[in-house]
Amino acid sequence: RSSWLLPAPLLTPPVPVITAPPCSLCPEGAHRFQWIRNLVPEFGISSSHVKVLSSPSEFYELLKVQIKAAKQRVVMASLYLGTGHLEQELVYCLEETLEKSLQAKGSPDLRVSILLDYTRGSRGRKNSRTMLIPLLRRFPEQVRVSLFHTPNLRGLLRLLIPERFNETIGLQHIKVYLFDDNVILSGANLSDQYFTNRQDRYVLLQDSPEIADFFTELVDAIGDVSLQLQQDDTVQMMEGMVHPYQGDKEAYCEIAKRRVMEVINSARTWQELLHAKTFHSSQSGSSLLSQQGSQQASGSLKPEPDTWIYPLIQMKPFGIQIDEMVTETLLTEAERDARIHLTTGYFNLTQAYMDLILGTRAEYRILLASPEVNGFFGAKGVAGAIPAAYVYIEHQFFSEVCYLQQQERVQLQEYSRAGWTFHAKGLWLYLAGSDLPCLTLIGSPNFGYRSVHRDLEAQVAIVTENKALQQQLHQEQEQLYLCSGVVSTSTFEQPNRYVKLWVKLVTPLIKNFF
Prior knowledge:
Elements (H helix, E strand, L loop, with lengths): L42 E3 L4 E4 L2 H14 L3 E5 L7 H19 L7 E7 H4 L6 H11 L4 E6 L6 H6 L15 E4 L2 E5 L5 H5 L1 E2 L2 E4 L3 H16 L2 E3 L5 E2 L12 H35 L1 H14 L8 E9 L4 E2 H12 L5 E6 L6 H9 L3 E7 L16 H18 L6 E6 L5 E2 L3 E5 L8 E5 L5 H6 L2 E8 L2 H15 L2 E3 L14 H10 L4
Parallel strand pairs: 3-4, 4-5, 8-17, 14-15, 15-16
Antiparallel strand pairs: 1-12, 2-9, 3-6, 5-10, 6-7, 7-9, 10-11, 12-13, 12-20, 14-18, 16-21, 18-19, 19-20
């Protein structure tokens, strides 16, 4: 198909849902989700290493503290880095930490790797690139800046689509921030509004070297197939690498898929070996007891894991659709009387997700942005009509819920908070009869067409048996939903919900791009 026809909606067959054991045969509690490790590595950790953050300012302050404390590595993957004074302060923190590393005895240990999207990071004269070039010039041996360029933006299409609009074709959308062995998973970008009044979600995994290694390798893999920013603000590919928009598209995507899947599969194999070793050790009780005794004497005994982290990757341009498969299976397998709280800043669910929500047994509480807290509210030009398009999509879904008489089981709620915008995404799963969630998904995907088909996405499934961590996750969910109102028929009769005819006509044609 010609490259200039790429904006046409991608017609792809439905993704196969993983065959998980029937719920009646599932192990009790959190262990029923162990089927996820058939696809991705399973990292068992102590719940004491997990901290849920609640506010943009807390997120920003943590970023600065972690950068300043880093000794070996700083790895940051985001859509873009903003250009305001708060973002500049982050760059100063990086500069200060790199300077300290440079002045330390011997060769500097600290390495900084930053992965951003090419089109979003290049927007405007002052942009992410110009913010980071001083670091590249001052610390050329320690700093790497990679700019991912989607292989779907090429040829005549690339020449014709103007700035900003070219971002609709595909993006690097992963948000991971790690410092030595501490990892922050979020949906937030590195921009001032995400540090002040744009509500998102954030979780810190402390002292988790294996998880930090995994995401370091993942970002390195994407970085290797990305354009490398140079000190003179030009970009070039690594030697021998196929170019994302000048080279052969099929060859590029195959190389990218192989690099990413190598990271996933090698980590999964290693974790399986560790799991088998632990299992066999537990079979020899006396030797294990003596081993535990010696470990306890030396104070090095690690607590038994009560929490499991599963990284879920979605990169449909490369043929990787793990996150989609796991999400669809979770929705399919959710039993009657289970409760799923699902949130997205941009309510534009794929048809598959909508069908599962409307056709399965669990209760759903879906939190979405009211028009006033939509990130596009008040934008100039065509972008200013995007909140109205989301209202139209929401109204269509709500009408379908009513038509199927599912209002009790599927409830929509709109987040509204004066002076704030809403960008939180993910889900919390409450098993039947439980008041606390045992699983959450947190990361970059929005559950929409873009997340599934166009962009590079990553999130983690956090599964826990620990009541204190379950309580943390429950409080996070309650705090977000506290700022919401239930959607009803009267919601769409309000003057601010009026959708112009042209928006209604255009929305079905463009909904796959936002």
